[in-house]
Write a structure and sequence with these properties.
Blueprint lengths: L2 H7 L1 H20 L4 H18 L8 E3 L4 E3 L1 H19 L1 H7 L8 H18 L3 H19 L6 H32 L4 H9 L5 H22 L8 H7 L2 H7 L2 H17 L4 H24 L4 H22 L2 H26 L18 H4 L1 H14 L7 H14 L3 H27 L12 H15 L7 H13 L3
Antiparallel strand pairs: 1-2
Helix pairs in contact: 2-3, 2-6, 3-4, 3-6, 4-6, 4-12, 4-13, 4-16, 4-22, 6-7, 6-13, 7-8, 8-9, 8-10, 8-11, 10-13, 10-14, 11-12, 11-15, 12-16, 13-15, 13-16, 14-15, 14-20, 15-16, 15-19, 15-20, 16-18, 16-19, 16-21, 16-22, 18-20, 18-21, 19-20
Subunit structure: NDH-1 is composed of 14 different subunits. Subunits NuoA, H, J, K, L, M, N constitute the membrane sector of the complex.
Catalytic activity: a quinone + NADH + 5 H(+)(in) = a quinol + NAD(+) + 4 H(+)(out)
InterPro entries: NADH-Q_OxRdtase_suN/2 (IPR010096), ND/Mrp_TM (IPR001750)
Length: 487
């Protein structure tokens, strides 16, 4: 395959890479005054990456001798990643101007672009080393973003914790990669699958492959914040700037989940029975711990951190099915989850006192239905949807993964998941109760950001409303086409 064809297949990453480098130079010469232009240009670059998916990059096959695959599965994930990244760029300027005590610097959107570049490589990787390079590119940008507010000790602490624990997880993953390579002789997913499928006549070789599988999944579990590798999530979500937290809860979550699905299905598909046990444990543990851990939280960002752990558990139920329907359920779940999560964090961004300082306590939501009725209605919709209460669209997300689990014969898993979802509903409903039935707290400050953030909240609310069910034929067909690309 010639070099031009390779570049055509990797065009979204080429667009992001060139755009990121050029904007980094503009940032260096333009200084803080170039922030607005760099931010909007970064959003345009992400739009260009989406447009690039309409060509060969949307499903043209493998590039660079099988290290990278452009298919329907990666296209689905990339669209979600780029949209979530663009929203995270757009909502940042007002937060930094009003709350962080520091104007937004142009490095922020540049780091977002490089993180999106790494995530694109992650979801298209069909080689363990490509996987690792993409993951590290995403992670290095994320470490800086977590500690982006230099004057905030919580932000610095969040960045340090994320860096230390992320490095540990990367080491675990890399050790698993080395074990898999040592016992299979290849880092290519198809070669690894062939080795797993071969008759394991040598017990030592089989044991080594199983250990490699466990370490690889442990490293990936950290990236999706699945139990027992969730410990970093509440502290990092609380300490990081709120736009960065919204980013962490959306785009990287989709990338890591898509990466885990591709590794499980393509590289380790022949040993589904072995990794299914790991996934089922992680799913149930994440659902239960995410629900129970959120009950006692008083900070809304920490509560949403446990909510993200809880939702990862539900998405993993679809992966545990090990079927195309299960993978389609995972993709559908992540698409709806993006809208619910970004909408929730957009409401959190509106929580500011009369001095414009960010307020994060759940108690400050008291009586918001009387002081900011539209905002309270939107937050209630997002909470009901995250809880999976019909007729909101979040119900269909849970239905999709439970239906795939039942179809695969995993009745106990589906039953436990349905029962555990009741626990999670408690803390979502507690927020609704606080907004609608408690005595009003001091009203939130309403600034001049309403047009952009208010519009984004409205769009997210419409997506997760009953009107979202109109998208089921399109979303179902697209997610199933993406899932079948792996089988």
């Amino acid at each position: 395959m010639d070099y031009a064809t390779n570049l055509a297949l990797t065009l979204p990453e080429v667009v992001l890479g060139i755009g990121g480098v050029l904007l980094m130079m503009v940032s260096a010469w333009g200084g803080p005054g170039s922030t607005r232009a760099v931010s909007w240009t970064a959003v345009a670059v992400l739009g260009g990456a989406v447009i690039a998916l309409l060509g060969p990059a949307g499903g043209g096959g493998e590039a660079f001798d099988g290290l990278y695959r452009a298919d329907a599965f990666s296209t689905f994930a990339k669209v979600l990643i780029y949209v979530a990244t663009a929203v995270s760029i757009l909502i940042a300027p007002d937060f930094f101007r009003r709350t962080a005590g520091d104007d937004l610097r142009p490095e922020y959107p540049v780091l977002m672009l490089f993180s999106a570049l790494g995530m694109g490589m992650m979801v298209s990787a069909v080689d363990l080393l490509t996987l690792y390079v993409g993951l590290e590119m995403q992670s290095l940008a994320a470490y800086v973003l977590a500690s982006f507010v230099r004057r905030d000790l919580r932000s610095a602490e969040a960045g340090l914790k994320y860096f230390v624990l992320g490095s540990l997880a990367s080491g675990i993953l890399l050790y698993g990669v080395s074990l898999v390579y040592g016992f299979t002789g290849t880092t290519m997913f198809d070669g690894i699958a062939a080795a797993y499928a071969a008759d394991a006549a040598e017990p030592a070789r089989s044991l080594g492959l199983v250990f490699g599988l466990v370490f690889v999944f442990a490293g990936l579990a950290f990236k999706i914040a699945a139990v027992p590798f969730h410990m970093w999530t509440p502290d990092v979500y609380q300490g990081a700037p709120t736009p960065v937290t919204a980013f962490f809860a959306s785009a990287p979550k989709v990338a890591a989940m898509a990466l885990a699905v591709r590794v499980a299905v393509e590289a380790m598909g022949p040993v589904t029975d072995q990794w299914r046990q790991i996934v089922i444990f992680a799913a149930l543990a994440s659902i239960i711990l995410g629900a129970v851990g959120a009950i006692g939280q008083s900070n809304v960002k920490r509560l949403l951190a446990y909510s993200s752990i809880n939702n990862v558990g539900f998405a993993l139920i679809g992966l545990a099915a090990g079927t195309a329907e299960g993978v389609a359920g995972v993709l559908t779940y992540m698409a709806i989850y993006i809208a619910m999560t970004l909408g929730s964090f957009l409401v959190v961004l509106q929580m500011r006192d009369v001095n414009g300082i960010q307020v994060e306590s759940i108690a400050s939501l008291s009586g918001m239905s009387r002081t900011r009725p539209a905002l309270a209605a939107a937050m209630a919709m997002f909470m009901f949807s995250l809880a999976g209460i019909p007729p909101l669209f979040g119900f269909y997300a849970k239905f999709a993964v439970f239906d795939a689990a039942v179809a695969a014969g995993l009745f106990p898993l589906a039953a436990i998941g349905v029962a555990a979802s009741v626990i999670g509903a408690y803390y979502y409903l507690r927020i609704v109760k606080t907004m609608y039935f408690d005595e009003p707290a001091p009203a939130f400050h309403k600034g001049d950001e309403g047009a952009l953030q208010g519009g984004l909240i409205a769009v997210a609310a419409v997506v997760i409303s009953p009107l979202g069910y109109l998208a089921i034929p399109f979303l179902g067909a697209w997610s199933m086409a993406a899932a079948r690309a792996l089988f």
